[in-house]
Amino acid sequence: MASLTSGEGAALFQNSREEVFNAVLEAVNRVPGMKVKQADQTSGYILITVGVNLWSWGEDLPVQITESAPRQTWLQIASSSKFALIDFGKNQRNVDRLMASVSEVLAARAQPGAPAPKVQQSAPPPPAQVACPNCGKALAAGAKFCTSCGSPLAGS
C-alpha cells in the first residue's frame, strides 16, 4: 500500500560507487533546503534531511548506494515525512530533484568529449533483495540500512 507521505526512486549509473557517493554529497548542496545529516561511505548510506516548510514538518531521505558490478552502481532514494498526513507530492518531487542533481553532477564530471554517464531509471533487479526486519521494505542485498525507516540491517 502506498503512503500519502512518501516518495522513492532508483537509478543505475555507469559510475563507481565512490563516484556516485561523492556526487550525491555534492548534489545535496545544489538542492535548496537539503542537508546531509549522516554519511557513511563504507556502507554506502547517506541520510539527508529537508527542513520544515509550508507543505510539511520536514522529511528524511535515506539514500543507499550499491555497486552491483564494476561501474554499475544503483542509487536508491526514499523520502518520508517526519510528521504529515499528506505531502501533496512534495516527497516525490524532492526525490526527483535530488536524482536530477546527481545526474547533473556526474555528467559535469565526465571527461570532455566522453559521453554522459548512462542512467537507467528503474528498480534494481528483484532477486538480490532482502527485507527490512523493522518495516518490511524490500532492499538491495548487502544494504546496511533501510532506505525507508533508516534501521540498521543484520550484519551491519
Q: Roughly what percent helix? A: 10-25%
Rg over CA atoms, rounded to whole Å, is 15 Å
Average pLDDT number:
78
Low-confidence stretches: 1-5
Biggest beta sheet attributes: 6 strands, antiparallel
N- to C-terminal distance: 28 Å
Oligomer: single chain
Strand order of the largest sheet: 2-3-4-5-1-6
The helix/strand order is: EHEEEEHEEE
Number of helices: 2
- Highest CATH level, the class: Alpha Beta
Number of domain units: 1
Helix-strand makeup class: alpha+beta
- Shape-level CATH architecture: 2-Layer Sandwich
Q: What is CATH's topology name?
A: Alpha-D-Glucose-1,6-Bisphosphate, Chain A, domain 4
Cα shape = globular
What would you note in describing this structure?
The chain is of the alpha+beta class and 156 residues long. The chain has a single domain (6-123), classed as Alpha-D-Glucose-1,6-Bisphosphate, Chain A, domain 4 (2-Layer Sandwich). 22% of the residues lie in helices and 33% in strands. It has two helices and eight strands, in the order E-H-E-E-E-E-H-E-E-E. The strands form two sheets. The protein has a six-stranded antiparallel sheet with strand order 2-3-4-5-1-6, covered by helices on one side. It has a two-stranded antiparallel sheet with strand order 7-8. Strand 4 (59-69) and strand 5 form a beta hairpin. Helix 1 (17-30) crosses helix 2. It is globular, with a radius of gyration of 15 Å. It starts with 5 loop residues before the first strand and ends in a 16-residue tail after the last strand. The relative contact order is 0.23. Residues 1-5 have low confidence and may be disordered.
